Amino acid sequence: MSLAKTSLASASRGRPVFTRIRQEAENLISHDLSIAALVTPAVLEQPSLEAAVIYRVASRLGDTTISIEQIRRTYTDIVADDASIGAAFEADILAFLDRDPSCKRLIEPLLYFKGFQALATHRLAHALWNQGRYDFGLYLQSRSSEVFQTDIHPAAKIGKGIFLDHATGLVVGSTAVIEDDVSLLQDVTLGGTGKEAGDRHPKIRHGVLIGAGAKVLGNIEVGHCARIATGSVVLHPVPPKTTVAGVPAQVVGDAGCAEPARSMDQILAAKMARG
């Protein structure tokens, strides 16, 4: 066994998340043997959560240009040297279980949810970008766009505990920052305002909820635990713990709760909407 694979095998010792995922895999097969061809190699034959995520993502991204095995080897080597990536995988899976009412098991994001798989792809692309392997990172961005319908630049900085609900149409620019425990729905754009160079994309602080179809444009800050309503166009900084709505977006009240990203409450109260 290679040093990288040994590191991955030891990564899951004492970690209950992967233990539970393995139990769910066994239960799944016991109820529907026809799914074993997916579940056995993706989970039961893997030594750790990291290895399982890498296997699943590589199987989705590999093609005749860059093979599944090449992506697996590259990601395995990177994860073996950076324990924070494995911790992010775990936090992201838990975020899906916590915030998505349709998600009943930890195994579901790993096997089926393209939002989680797109995040995992970005984590590899970002690591490659930081190593100066820009073209490999851009290739993975391109493949993710094809396979998952998300377009996240490999230079973008993304924290852990991220929930991409549905994920289709998500666009994240190269100088964007997304801190921990943020939730974004489908068709969200974190973009620039034109052809300006330099630092030109939004900074999303921890705990923020961004509703479906919202556009946040320019080098502006969305303060921690803020809430951006569905369909809004945000052109100015958003104060912490507030709700903004409209085109262009304006503050319409407080955030409605302590942790908007976890509550996933997108309904504006009547008095807030009137304000």
TrEMBL record:
Ordered alphabetically, the record's keywords are: Acyltransferase, Amino-acid biosynthesis, Repeat, Transferase
InterPro entries in the cross-refs: Hexapep_transf_CS, LbH_SAT, Ser_AcTrfase_N, Ser_AcTrfase_N_sf, Ser_O-AcTrfase, Serine_acetyltransferase, Trimer_LpxA-like_sf
Pathway per its UniProt entry is:
Amino-acid biosynthesis; L-cysteine biosynthesis; L-cysteine from L-serine: step 1/2
Is RNA-binding one of the keywords?
Answer: no
Provide the Gene Ontology terms for cellular component: cytoplasm
Name residues in a coiled coil.
Answer: none
User: Can you give the residue ranges of the Serine acetyltransferase N-terminal domain?
Assistant: 17-121
What EC identifiers does the entry list?
2.3.1.30
Q: Which GO terms describe its molecular function?
A: serine O-acetyltransferase activity
What GO terms in the biological process aspect are recorded for it? cysteine biosynthetic process from serine
Top-level taxon of the source organism: Bacteria
SUPFAM superfamilies given in the database record: Trimeric LpxA-like enzymes
Swiss-Prot/TrEMBL catalytic activity? L-serine + acetyl-CoA = O-acetyl-L-serine + CoA
The family database entries (Pfam families) matched by this protein are listed as: SATase_N
- Which PANTHER family does the record cross-reference, listed alphabetically? SERINE ACETYLTRANSFERASE
Which protein family is named in the record? Belongs to the transferase hexapeptide repeat family.
Protein's recorded name: Serine acetyltransferase
Q: What does the record give as the organism's lineage? A: Bacteria, Pseudomonadati, Pseudomonadota, Alphaproteobacteria, Hyphomicrobiales
